[in-house]
Amino acid sequence: MEKFVTIERAIEITRQTSFQSTVEIIAIQESLGRTLAEDLPSKVDDPAFDNSAMDGWAVRSQDKTRVEIGQTCAGATPAKIGPGEAIRIMTGAPIPEGADAIVMIEDGLQGEARPHFIRRQGENLHAGKVTLHRGQKMTPAAISLAATMGYDKIPVQTKLRVAVISTGDELIQPGKSLKSGEIYESNSYGIAALLEKIGCEPTIQPIVQDSLDGLRKTLDASDCDLIITSGGVSMGERDFVRKLMEEEGQIHFWKVAMRPGGPPLFGSWKGTPLFGLPGNPVSSHLVFQIIVAPWLAPATPLFKRVRVKMLDKVKGAPHKVCFRRIQIVNENGKLTGRTQTHQGSGNIHSMVAHNGLTYLQPNIDADVGDQIDALWFND
Ligand code: AMP
Ligand code: MG
Fold this sequence. Notes:
Helix content is 18%, strand content 30%. By secondary structure, it is of the alpha/beta class. The protein folds into four domains: 2-19 and 160-296, 3-Layer(aba) Sandwich (Molybdenum Cofactor Biosythetic Enzyme, Chain A), CATH 3.40.980; 23-45 and 124-157, Molybdopterin biosynthesis moea protein, domain 2 (Alpha-Beta Complex), CATH 3.90.105; 51-119, Molybdopterin biosynthesis moeA protein, domain 3 (Beta Complex); 303-377, Beta-clip (Beta Barrel), CATH 2.40.340. The chain has a seven-stranded mixed sheet, with helices on both faces. Strands 21-24-23-25-26 form a five-stranded mixed barrel. Helix 1 (7-14) crosses helix 6 (281-296). The longest helix is centred in the C-terminal third of the chain and has 16 residues, at 281-296.
């Protein structure tokens, strides 16, 4: 077990654990955000036939004058024209045999004949050509393209199934009433939302009391690819996640040189990878963003690295990277950072009231006017 590792080392160690994803076939309308598991060749040419890009007339460009002999719409079978003839045509309708240009409705029947308003068969996509590649993230446009290519279902990678377990005798599910000494359990909701954001499938488990037996039972029953716990990883007598993992699990690292979020733990429980987040709400959220997300979803970064000019003084931390919550504002192309709320690691409001974090190297404070490294959340 490695103790008190840097953030970089923590990510490196987590990356030694990888997950075998399998493939499932799903409806394209269910596929937003999913990762395509195979190359997809188009089933059709797009356009499938030459058609009009405009409402107007299909004409022969060599004709000087024309007479209208009929009309054709999208979905119709191709008509035919001879010398001096024109057919009223709607956008998407097949080009009549003999026609080689479109006159726009705005220009009138004797207007300019424009060949480039014919959309040619296959000018967008060719049947058989791979147009969506394995690994593609399914965006709204990619979903539309899959449909254009003729797919109603597509193969995607299965989502990682993650059990989210919070621990603590003081925790009560929100919506219930609190007795003295109790607080609402909040970490699992934020962590589950973060997991969804990076494409995983979280299941929030019932709150586990501070007992070795209860925790062991819940871990054993978790039936998932990855277990994420919160709370119970510090030095305290009742930090049972750490205790149980020390005694019966396997720990790869414990404690990371970061503040907030110092005591996370990573290892495995009877073959299932387990990440133990700290209990403090800011700490659990932040450790997920800084270590867990880059491990599970390196292609879905939750923030950008930027430089900001500080407009408030912030204190760093001895021997640890310090993540103060800051509001980053773009002022005429220059980014500035301000702190606006109490910075305690128990204050999750600080993560809502700010859109970024300082990335202060160990033992470094920032003064007003200093340029510092920062992380700017994507949303
Ligand atoms: P722990 O790491 O278990 O010592 O918890 C540290 C602090 O975080 C304590 O004040 C706990 O009450 C609080 N905490 C732990 N788990 C949660 C949770 N799931 N939701 C909200 N607060 C929590
Ligand atoms: Mg606790």
